[in-house]
Amino acid sequence: MTDRRHQVLLAGLDRAGLYDLGPEDAEAVRVLADRLDEPTVRRVAHWPATAGGRS
Hints:
Number of helices: 3
Shape: globular
């Protein structure tokens, strides 16, 4: 099962229009989800969502 922090990051990228993630992208998301606490993950996920115009 996917960790909640991982889901939050993917949702932020999805809102920015980044749907087709490659293996390196998936690994970067995994590392961020593993190393950051949930409030920080939510903040980081907010950035691409805002940049994509869908906050």
